[in-house]
Amino acid sequence: MELLAVNAYIEEALKTLDRTSPYTGTLRVGVDLGTAYIVLVVIDENDIPIAIELEYAQVLRDGLVVDFVGACRIVQSLKEKLEHRLGVSLMKASIAVPPGTSKADANTHKYVVESVGLEVTAIVDEPTAANAVVGMKNGVIVDIGGGTTGLSIIENGAVIYSADEATGGTHVSLVISGHYHITFEEAESYKMDVSKIHEVSQIVRPVFEKMATIVKNHIQGYEVLEVCLVGGTCLFPGIETVFERITGIKTIKPSQPLLVTPIGIALSCMK
Question: By percentage, how much of the chain surpasses pLDDT 90?
Answer without folding.
Answer: 72
